[in-house]
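Bug report (template v2)

What were you trying to do?
Predict the complex of my protein with arginine.

What happened?
Run completed; filing so the output is reviewed.

Input:
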Amino acid sequence: MRDAAPATIYLKDYVPFGYLVDEVHLTFDLAPNATLVTSRIAFRPNPDTDNRDFRLNGEGLSLRWAKIDGQDWKPHVRDGILSATPPNPETPFVWEAQVEINPEANTALEGLYLSNGMYCTQCEAEGFRKITYYPDRPDVMSTFTVRINGPHPVLLSNGNPGASGEGFAEWHDPWPKPAYLFALVAGDLVAHSDRFTTVSGREVDLNLWVRPGDEGKCAFGMEALKKSMRWDEEVYGREYDLDAFNIVAVDDFNMGAMENKGLNIFNSAAVLASPETSTDDNFERIEAIIAHEYFHNWTGNRITCRDWFQLCLKEGLTVFRDAQFTSDLRSAPVKRIRDVIELRARQFPEDQGPLSHPVRPESFQEINNFYTATVYEKGAEVIGMLKRLVGDAAYAEALDLYFARHDGQACTIEDWLKVFEDVTGRDLAQFKRWYSQAGTPRVKVEEDWQDGTYTLTLSQVTPPTPGQPDKLPQVIPIALGLLGPNGDEVQPTQILEFTRAQQSFTFEGLAARPVPSILREFSAPVVLERETSPAERAFLLAHDTDPFNRWEAGRTLAEECLLTMITEGAAPDADYLNGLLAVLRDETLDPAYRALMLGLPSQSELAATLHRRGVTPNPQAIWDATETLRQSTAQHLHDLLPRLRAETQVDQPFAPDAAQSGKRALGGAALALLTRLDGGAQATDDYGRADNMTLQLSALSCLLKAGKGQAELAAFYDQWRHDRLVIDKWFGLQVGLASPDKVVETARALTGHPDFNWKNPNRFRALFGPLAMHHAGFHFAGGAAYELLADWLIRLDPVNPQTTARMCSAFQTWRRYDADRQALIAVQLDRILAQPGLSRDTTEMLTRIKG
Ligand code: ARG
Ligand code: ZN
């Protein structure tokens, strides 16, 4: 039993462990409810500290015996900590122990567990302590030798394969690693295999292990892996370092995937793909996740984190690297726009609400609650800014120095910034505030034009966040270009270093007053506040040479149009509709880019903007305005829609590449508009002819959105009832596309469906994710959605605290809304918090959300 108040861990309290580990030997005797784990671990005193406390973490373990240097030992175990005093703490000693664990009973999916009869592990962040007693902290690194005894055809662990035979296999990982990178897999699996020759000639066996039946969904993931391996050699000079690289797909997994050394474990949704069952977006995401986990081999594994406060050291950098990879393989502007849409949808609400925390947090109760959009995505943005400030050449040099200096070490953000300081001679003390100050800076822009001199005055304010009432100015790289009255660029992109609370930048010798294109490529994760006319936005939408800002101009036009519709009951703005029409007509523009132009700010984003401007958002009014604008857009583009459809037909065999997926995205967006005009005739036809999941789902979505498609929905279920990943889509679709007044009843009915295996995180999220994301439905008057979600969080928490805690973020924006809604939500937050034995994960999340 845990104490009533979970303990808070602080970055400032970091102390090194008293011992170094030279070798870890583990033997697993697998049995579903009584697996034996026998460990032999060589410790020696850590010369960097005099602290000789010998404390090992362990949770839910039955200790059978323990020995130190061969002598039986009776350690003291309490609250997940085993303490012992080694007889001679100043000399090396060998710890041995045997514990019994119960993988079958492990529904939390952390430690060693069973998924469809297959053994697998998830140790990051602190799951290894559920496997055996160990200093479960990332700064303790060791080589691992593992023997697995079990009747399973496939027995895997980290590193290189050793001896194997009937009922056993041995593995040795020569690279010292923290325990969070340990992995084990055992089961009846089949491999999709390939080979890769590294730049220096090492032959690597590549295997993607799946359950029998999934073999046909491996080819794309394997290609993505090989591309990632080559790209990391070419762009970062990083070569793979083992003889084997194994990827395993598992159905029950809390997150996307895990970078265990040489044995990546993936949520099957993040790796299995086929044209018939996966959308273009699925393919792109899978490619990025494979790359992400592979890139961790250097940024995360070879160089790891000193402690969990440094999580962004590996995650921010690895997200940044996988985004570079996607930009290189596909379209850089499209990738950037999609990332910014995601950042605004997921990171901004976090940064601007009660869960706001610095990219490097300073305290936590449950580290699993800090695998957040802030640590990952804002962490990646911070690296992008650093690269912009120092330039590409210095960035490359700094990275080389980072790998050379810190290979094999467990590092901090200070180590990371120091390589940039050493390479460039810059002082990054102020820049470091990006890691320590939470919240999204707001940048206000004022302009002045006099006698041929243009002056841009910027001011920055970061609003208070929990525990941080006052903020200091940050270093904000502002990419700026200036356009002349005819749309020509009179000042190409330059980076303004905006470091003070207020700062002016002047540009002389201009023939006419320019139009500024500010924050090109979204050069910093800030909110830009600038009063401009729709005409100026329309000008940028027509002329900006920066593709990101051209899109942004259209986005802002759309947003301002929606906001005036919401707050003043205005009609849709002609500048927006005409500007959009012109862009969509331009066949020289990438279809993927034009599809993005057709997007609107999400309803949640509109609510956030209203709230920032002091207006209480009304979710139904936001829904209505969005629907009205969509309808007007369909009418305005009426003549163009058939042409867009014709232009985006794909005649080649299916390929999930940038070119084809861009066409399908634009064709799908055109179909959605067309469905508003033709009542679903075209979508019904398309559904009947669809020969890949992207087209099938796009047609079905249009029909459901129009309140039709029940026959197709049933046929879809019959067609795909044996494919769990497609059935996840089937669940999500119905909730996500229901009208606001029908969302709760749809979701509730689906919870009673025989396929609603709520203990499977993918299935739980398939239903409740879209419920929480359906802005007008989740906040529909009366609060029934709040109650339904709370009921299920209460049910899931004892089974799987991690997934429960993540879903709690559905409530993070609650203070934006009116008093009635806040009261309804407060009731649910309190009801969950009152559950006896509520997990540390969920308790921490809800306590922070309540504020
Ligand atoms: N390191 C993994 C990744 O970024 C995420 C694992 C997080 N797992 C967790 N239980 N918090 O790919
Ligand atoms: Zn990662």
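What did the reviewer find?
The two ends are 26 Å apart (CA to CA). Residues 292, 296, 315, 318 surround zinc ion (ligand 2) (CB under 6 Å).
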